[in-house]
Amino acid sequence: GVPGTGKTATAMEVLRSAKRRMNSGDLPAFTLVALNGLRLASPAHLYTELHEALTGERLVPSAALEKLEQRFRGTSGTGKGRKRRRSHDSDDEDDDEDDDDEEEMEEEMEAEEGEHDDGGARRKGKAKAQKKNQTNRKKERSVLLIVDELDVLVTRSQSVLYNLFEWPHSTGAAQPLRVVGIANTMDLPERLMPRVASRIGACRLNFTPYSQEQLQEIVRARLAGSECFGKVALEYAARKVAAVSGDARRALELCRRAVEVAAARAGNDARAVTINDVDGAVKELFASPQMAALRRASPLERRALGMLSALQASSGLAEAPVNLMHAGMGAMGGAPASSAAAASTSKSGNMHPEAQRRCLRRLSAQRLVVCSAGCTADAGMASLNVSANDLQRVQKTGSNRGLAL
């Protein structure tokens, strides 16, 4: 579903309920791991983060993948599979297996001695065996993996996604794996390779944009009985957001700004937010600031916006890698339109790295571009915070011609 439709919030609430049921004994025990694709250095680092969450050991992606293959593909059984695991596992895992073998031998010896001993010794051996079975069941509890921003893991080979959805189908794994993916792209399964899409199956839940009635309920729940918003003003705000995006976060942001407008208008005498206050907030949040910033944008900034828009349109994703945006800016054609632009461009026609960093910082500060958590000028993901139609209108009416779409 598109951003702001409650995907992550719904998944987290379901997980909180599942953990309560697990603690009360209504559900089998499981290990929860939650990862966000935007916080990964690269798609392959999902292996590193997952392995570290399960074992506490941080490895490079290739080594972490090998460990996860052993855990989730069932290569830790008897015979050749067991030998492969012993040849690749860490010393700690080998020690664990040796300890298990020693315990098994001790139990067998005790059981044999118990045959000639009294009933107390037999009961003692049985109790130890039950305790070991409980420990093994705890070790083999299933892993529930939540991957938010799944779109970011799409690569040319799609190997990360293939492994991610192949592991749950493996039989005889040391630990069963269950995966829940959260994506902003509505048709992501259709964009994947057949070998990946076939492993996702039909377990798919679409989150549509909120209606104005649903947005009203969400805002009322956040207000928690407060009378600061009149019924008509709240309905007006919900209709405005529903007509644009149906984004619950944008609705809450609009209502928060409307309260600030009402407070600035009437000070402490303000009793409730009016339609005029909401209308003023709408003009601030949806219209004038971004359009004014677009008109003031330099040719280099417009070129960056155009490249980011083109990347999003070609991939169908809500975000695009910053490094690809920078790489494509020098190849979009057209000479710099000003001396400042020319000074920021090398002899080869590519932008200097420092100029790229300054450009991204300015666009982010003006809220024309939204950068992901941990994003820098050299790595991370960014998304356009204005519509393609607005960009085209500014291109046609503005005096600068640095924008290419």
Automatic annotation (TrEMBL):
Component of the origin recognition complex (ORC) composed of at least ORC1, ORC2, ORC3, ORC4, ORC5 and ORC6. ORC is regulated in a cell-cycle and development dependent manner. It is sequentially assembled at the exit from anaphase of mitosis and disassembled as cells enter S phase. Binds unmodified and methylated histone H3. Residues 335-349 have a biased composition (Low complexity). This is Origin recognition complex subunit 1. One of its GO terms (cellular component) is nuclear origin of replication recognition complex. Residues 122-138 have a biased composition (Basic residues). One of its GO terms (biological process) is DNA replication initiation. It comes from Pycnococcus provasolii. Keywords: ATP-binding, DNA replication, DNA-binding, Nucleotide-binding, Nucleus. Component of the origin recognition complex (ORC) that binds origins of replication. DNA-binding is ATP-dependent, however specific DNA sequences that define origins of replication have not been identified so far. ORC is required to assemble the pre-replication complex necessary to initiate DNA replication. Belongs to the ORC1 family. Pfam families: AAA_lid_10. It comes from the Eukaryota. Residues 232-263 form the AAA lid domain. InterPro entries: AAA_lid_10, ORC1/CDC6, P-loop_NTPase. Residues 90-116 have a biased composition (Acidic residues). One of its GO terms (molecular function) is DNA replication origin binding. It is found in: Nucleus. Residues 70-138, 335-355 are annotated as: Disordered.
